[in-house]
Write a structure and sequence with these properties.
Radius of gyration: 20 Å
Number of helices: 12
Order of helices and strands: HHHHHHHHHHHH
Number of strands: 0
Shape: globular
Largest sheet: none
Helix content: over 70%
Oligomer: single chain
Strand content: under 5%
């Protein structure tokens, strides 16, 4: 099997896991979301720690820790990804998986807008049109729902800022996420200590389910594999396929989220959703076509050098 095909298959598998992960988190809807997030942090640390141990790269952690600038960026990215994880888990638990999928649909376009604001990047006419259509879709959905789609916006913005921060550092995905969860580890451990010993809860749900039954305990521990596995696949794919292909395949993630929300969770698909979603799909089609065109142009330019 050719390497590019292996890369595409790895990316499809990664996006399928991400897209279907809402089914997993729905099984933990009775567990407070901050408790789920805390376990996800701890077991992700265990997973990535084992991966680096097997790769004999644990010493790389000390190299990052001794670099204040890189560590500072990773602390900021840790905040962004923890907010993103929490809001996604919470959205699934309260029956807003469709809104979560909308957030990951608009993320690529939001990321372009962030690049313009933060990095002074120039928009192509197609990108400007895609952003305009996405903005209209968000406004329509906000009017229809009676309030802005906060879950979608928070997911898109936090993931967009997360990507912007990651652009500032030269650290691989496995090592960078390990450092991020390492930074979050004391908070997660402190919260779980309070949950199990003092009954702490933000949402009012009874917590402390870990070790109370094997099913919930196994599900919470599995969150480490669910977080780390797709990132390993993403890293594998990124070395074998172009960034353009990588970006296009990633739309499989929100598409599966949308299908799960509609057909598995039977969430209400209103006429406002029926207007907003096709608009964002049109915007993404314009954005993707422009990205593909630029990717092919870049490949030709590279061949001439």
């Amino acid at each position: 099997m050719r390497e590019p095909l292996k890369g595409v298959l790895a990316m499809v598998l990664a996006c399928s896991i991400w897209g279907l992960s809402s089914i997993y988190y729905k099984q933990l809807a009775h567990v407070p979301p901050f408790e789920v997030l805390s376990h996800r942090t701890i077991w992700s640390f265990v997973f990535f720690g084992l991966v680096l141990l097997l790769q004999r790269r644990l010493s790389d952690i000390f190299r990052i820790v001794k670099a204040p600038r890189t560590l500072g960026f990773l602390a900021l990215s840790a905040v962004m990804i923890s907010i993103n994880w929490f809001v996604f888990i919470y959205a699934i638990q309260i029956g807003r998986a469709m809104e979560a999928s909308f957030g990951y649909y608009i993320f690529p376009i939001v990321a372009v807008a962030i690049g313009v604001i933060a990095l002074k990047e120039r928009l192509s006419p197609a990108q400007f049109l895609a952003i305009s259509i996405a903005f209209i879709a968000v406004v329509i959905l906000g009017i229809g729902l009676g309030n802005p789609p906060w879950i979608s916006l928070i997911l898109a913005l936090t993931f967009g800022v997360y990507g912007l921060i990651k652009k500032q550092i030269a650290v691989g995905p496995v090592l960078s996420v390990l450092i991020e969860v390492l930074i979050l580890l004391p908070i997660a451990a402190f919260w779980l200590f309070g949950v199990h010993n003092f009954g702490w809860s933000i949402t009012g749900l009874a917590g402390g389910v870990f070790a109370s039954n094997w099913q919930d305990s196994a599900l919470l521990m599995f969150s480490g594999i669910l977080t780390g596995g797709p990132l390993i696949l993403l890293s594998y794919a990124a070395k074998r396929i172009t960034l353009t292909t990588l970006g296009l395949v990633q739309y499989l993630n929100p598409t599966l989220q949308f299908l799960v929300a509609t057909f598995v969770f039977a969430e209400n698909f209103t006429r406002w959703h029926a207007i907003a979603f096709p608009l964002i799909w049109i915007g993404l089609a314009i954005y993707s076509a422009d990205t593909w065109r630029q990717g092919k142009s870049g490949a030709k330019d590279s061949a001439l050098v």
